[in-house]
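Subject: for your reference before the review

Hello V.,

The reviewers asked for a structural picture of the protein, and I figured it would be easier to keep everything in one thread rather than splitting it across files. Below is the amino acid sequence we used in the manuscript, unchanged from the supplementary table.
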Amino acid sequence: MQISYFHVPAEMPQDLRPDAAVVIDVLRATTTIAWALHNGAEAVQAFASLDDLRAAAAAWPADARLLLGERGGQMLEGFDLGNSPVAVKPERVAGKRLFMSTTNGTRALDRVSEVPLLLTAALPNREAVAQRLLAKQPSHVAIVGSGWEGAYSLEDSLAAGALGHRLLELDPTGSSAANDELTAAVSLWREWQSEPEACLRTATHGQRLIRLGDHDADFRCCAGLDQLSVVPTQVEPGVLRAA
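And here is what came back from the structure prediction:
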């Protein structure tokens, strides 16, 4: 398995055709998706466009849907939930479809929506995603960071390195880094693996969340390594279910 990492979706070559893609947005979209599905959400449907989200949600039964989204780290007006993994509690999301749009993560999902096997990963489900990839054995997996408004983000590279490190650890003879970005991300993970929350707080987006208010619970949740067995998997364009 060849493993590539791209800091932001725009860095992924247009002609690249990986067998699998893993989208990462640690703070906080893919962490929220993992916890929502773990807590019983029927599915998470991701949108880059708010107009498309509202149109799709309007066609869904009102008692079986929730609108979840943020821009600039803050909850969108008129939505049911923001982009917080600690807010998607079982009593709120169980059985519901979450119509979701965020500043960065849902746009990254849109970029790789046509890849045959599309998963999302965060630190809490790192091990589960690694095991799924090893079971599927794609010849080339592209890990795609969401970044922040098109720019590099430290926290996504940390999680990409955590996943890459685990894949190389589990499959040392069959898996290899396909680009320098993955090698650098693995090195970043080795540097911060004993204190991932500190790394998230050091990142510029972490600093942005700190300025917005009390996000201590979100930081703890986003930094919690290997806590979930759920693997969010695209089952139709933009629709992720637990697998």
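For the response letter, the relevant points are probably these. The mean pLDDT is 96. Residues 154-170 form the longest helix (17 residues).

Happy to draft the paragraph if you're swamped.

O.
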